[in-house]
Design a protein that fits this description.
single chain, alpha+beta, Beta-Lactamase, 2 domains, 10 helices, 6 strands, elongated
Length: 300
């Protein structure tokens, strides 16, 4: 008596013979190749359209011309075969999809120019300072001066004890003072201070995207969670007592900061008083954001 498992085994063997005896379907095999080529072209389309950032319209014309040339060549080669027709139609569909991708990308690029993307892709924001015109730098200097004077007035302290600066991300991935964007800071090693995202008041503000207030306590706690590595702490002004850090963003309010605006003081101030003046710094951060957005849009 034949066991069920033996019958299943012979049935499977018979099926394998039947399958192996069938002739391969050229259309089926070619369709898989066409799908693979279409997927590859889709990826190439996205990559190439991303490359033509300044002239999406020109990129569409040039790349579509190349695509038509490829389609024409294939059509001539396969003109007498059904496979040729399938390939021709597949490339035609890919061409339409490609054109739609280029158009969509051009819309996204226009959005980027007007600062409506959620996140700034280029992370060397320190270089943005070099793009500012002399007039814009003068305006920024005036803003920093006015901000420091307003803070001194609100806190009822000596205006010469309040300073301001702007930090950006450099090629090394660390935060540095944007050259020239300081107020009431004397030339010296302090201008070379740098920190990683999450380190110090500036780094914590950049990492979290929210304002940060740091204070140096008279007790052994020092700067607490806002302390920097010893090599960087040694660069700071010996009388530095507090720092208020505000993120400067481009686009949506929840976007990644591109710069950090800092106000700091050389005389001690109570935490509650710093908490009270911190919201006023948001106005100055937005003013700097507007200047930066205008500059970047003008240079597109």
């Amino acid at each position: 008596m034949t066991e069920p498992s033996d019958r299943r085994g012979r049935a499977a063997t018979s099926e394998q013979r039947a399958v192996s005896g069938r002739k391969p379907n050229p259309i089926s095999n070619e369709a898989g190749w066409v799908v693979a080529v279409a997927n590859a072209l889709r990826d190439v389309a996205v990559a190439l359209s991303d490359g033509f950032r300044n002239s999406p319209g020109l990129s569409a014309l040039v790349l579509l011309f190349l695509l038509v040339a490829v389609v024409a060549g294939i059509a001539l080669y396969f003109v007498s075969s059904l496979v040729g027709l399938v390939v021709f139609l597949a490339f035609l569909v890919v061409g339409v999809i490609f054109a739609a991708m280029v158009y969509r990308r051009s819309i996204e690029q226009s959005a980027e120019r007007f600062g409506v993307v959620k996140e700034v892709r280029a992370m060397n924001t320190l270089a943005y300072g070099d793009r500012l015109s002399s007039e814009q730098r003068e305006i920024v200097g005036g803003l920093l001066e006015s901000m420091a004077a307003g803070i001194a007035d609100d806190l009822d302290i000596d205006p010469s004890s309040v300073r301001a600066n702007v930090f950006g991300i450099g090629d090394d991935g660390r935060l540095h003072i944007v050259p020239g964007l300081t107020w009431n800071m004397a030339p010296g090693k302090e201008l070379s201070v740098a920190m990683s995202a999450g380190s110090g008041s500036t780094g914590r503000c950049f990492a979290t995207g929210v304002p940060n207030i740091a204070m140096r306590r008279a007790t052994g706690a020092g700067w607490g969670a806002d302390i920097l590595p010893t090599s960087e702490m040694e660069k700071l002004h010996r009388d530095l007592s507090w720092i208020v850090s505000i993120p400067i963003v481009i686009g949506h309010s929840d976007a990644r900061p591109v710069w950090i605006l800092n106000a700091d003081g050389l005389v001690p101030v109570e935490q509650s008083r710093l908490n009270a003046i911190a919201p006023s710094l948001l106005y100055w951060a937005e003013a700097l954001s507007l200047i930066l957005r205008t500059n970047l849009e003008d240079q597109q």
